[in-house]
Amino acid sequence: MELRVLRYFLMVAKEQSFTNAAKQLHMTQPTLSRQLALLEKELGTVLFERNGHGVTLTEDGILLKRRALEIIELEDKIVDDFKGDSELIEGSITIGCGEFTAIETLANICKEYKEKYPKVTIAIHTATADVVHEMMDKGLVDIGLFLEPTTTEGLDYIRLANKDYWVVGMRPDDPLAKKEFITKEDLIDKPLIFPERAGVQSELINWFGKDYKNINVSYTSNLGTNAGIFARNGLGYPLSIGGACKYWSPDILVQRRLYPEMSLGTIIAWRRNIPSSQAVKKLIEVIMLLEHNKQ
Hints:
There is one protein chain. Helix content is 43%, strand content 25%. The protein contains eleven helices and twelve strands. The strands form two sheets. Strands 3, 4, 5, 6, 7, 8, 9, 10, 11 and 12 form a ten-stranded mixed β-sheet that branches. Strands 1-2 form a two-stranded antiparallel ribbon. The radius of gyration is 24 Å and the shape is globular.
């Protein structure tokens, strides 16, 4: 299987048309069809369902698309990794993170780094900790930011000074918005929106204690922005980390801290004993220098 043919496959999947894909690839439609027919033969499966309006992916085609995107992304990353061996650092870095206060620290780190190495492109990939860990294992993410508790197996990391606090989101006209803090008694009869990650849910379960069995978890959400939109529409009260929520306009959504207070630390991490590009090595140097200067 050639990477070139995988790129052909992804173009057809994107355009949903052999004719349009062939135009984008600057090749003839029969040549493109022949290449992908050989790919189907090699894999022993049908990748496309052909109809009068174009083509759609079969279940095996959807699976190949997911795998092909990972392979092509990794190939592009390998090429970028070797662009930084000269004195002028180039290439790209992918940073995986959630939505929390430490992103402000990350922004300062990136600002310092880009002043030194302006040719490097930094991609910020927002996802849950589980997804970021998985992408780091696959080599698709170079640096990860994680809220504690989190696994650090196979990682080198620095604990950042920032602390994040658990909050409840609500509309500004909600009666709870008049309170300075929110207790578990305030939430017993309310529809709640919990974070999706099991390890994070366990923190909330401990906070509710014996009253956990009496609460109403109506929704779960893996990222806070969508949960905030649901709250704005009166569907529930999201319990989340306060970092990203403070950027909501207070006339749209407000947040109140939980009481007793719960806080979490953040680490910034990279894979241990795994060779990195020069661009990534220089970013790690900037991270360590800036955090050392804070101590």
